[in-house]
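Technical appendix A lists one of the benchmark inputs used to test multi-chain prediction within the project. The record comprises two sequence entries:
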Amino acid sequence: MKRRQFFLFWPILFTVALPFVPLILWSVSNQWFYPAILPQTFGTRAYQYVFGTAGNQILTGLFISTALALATTCISLIFGIPAGRALGLYDFPGKKFATLLLTLPVIVPSLSIAMGLHLWFIKLDLAETFTGVVLIHLTFCLPYTIFVIWGVFTDYNLDFEEQARSPGAPGWKIIIQVMLPVILQGISIAALFSFLLSWSQYLSTLIIGGGKMLTLPLLLFSLMDSGDRPVAATVSLVFIVPAFLALMTSAHNLGRNGMEGIR
Amino acid sequence: MAAVSSPLGQGRKTSPACLLLLLGPALIIITVLFGGGLTLGFFQALDYLPGQGFDQIGLQHFTHVLQDPDFFNSLGISLYISITSTLIAAAVSVVLFVYNWKEIPFITFMLLAVLKNVGSELDEVGATLNGSKTQRFRYITLPIISPSLGGACLIVFAFTFGAFEVPYLLGRTYPMALPVWAYKNYSDIDLLARPEGIAIAIGMILAAIITMTIIFSQLLLQFSRNRSYDL
């Protein structure tokens, strides 16, 4: 068994880590032409550009991306937890239809929705605003959150709440002191998903944000188009770091056996 | 509609008022944003914008798209990309599953959910009957997972079919993948060519194809869930 795990772990780590190698190499190269396997000259030009010349723009992008992702995540959780509870705990007519309705926004490309909503948002003065972009991100972050919370509540034991209710605890106290602590791990997974999903949105932010909401992916795409590979690679790394940090924090929160409570 | 008893809901019931309170707000948000987006997009694709001089419903954008040879080229390349990647994902996850690997790429996850209901009894019976590893896989595991494998594959297919970022960055410039082509049309600077309607029409066709795929995959998954329950 150990042997088998070994043979699975390393190839998977290898496949996951492989794309980062050229990214890191590109970011520290000054000159890298076609037939060479490694860059001909190394240097920190790209880093100087990203943190020096374009530092302000990148920082603003980082700030806007984070703010958007945080806002989207909070709203997703506020509406997603009750909905996930309803779906996870109860049976009701029309549940399959609700499931289908929730599955569609996750998979139908944001392109179709964003192009449709664009005109409407322009009329409502929501286009090119923070609220507008949060709303369009919410279209797919909310279903994701509901799906995760749904999974959490399928294993949820209502008896805990009954026990708190019998000595007379009020509803809000049960929610804060019983329900939330029990599902906290699930909430942090849902929050992570929602954060990362919003963090990596490109097209919907571009269409609804109209270039006013300059998030990191938007900056990254324009750099990719401009053809300056080292700079694009460096920004990609900057782009990955916060997502990676979010992942690590939530993994730390969950602990090694964190998922057990959820499955 | 009769009360649905799904294996996931644990059979509990609650009052409609409570359900409405819990589920209502989220469903309203999604219906308004997602449903509204699709409906408005559809009207725009039909050139129907009441109150702005576009009161006639016209199919010209759709016919325009369907007559364009580029459409079929793009459709072809999109199909090629998504079918290939789906097949690879399915093959890989079947292999991974056989090795009892517990990480969760999407398909593996869906398969695990079904297999958790089935348990390992059938496989053990196969082993006591002296079935070899390949025989057990071919005659026991594969038939059990095939419907949910199909369902999961369709979802992955839909996902790659509608993906924009990767084909945009790495894909060929001609023929473009469908979503990329739609975006190119939408952001065209030449307003005289009026291509937005066409772009939205492409978007709608994409959405329609994907919606059909999802509904079909849900049916398959439903089937597999019911069947694994019977076991």
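Confidence is low (pLDDT under 50) at residues 1-9, 99-104 of chain B. Chain B has nine helices and no strands. Comparable benchmark entries are summarised in Table A2.
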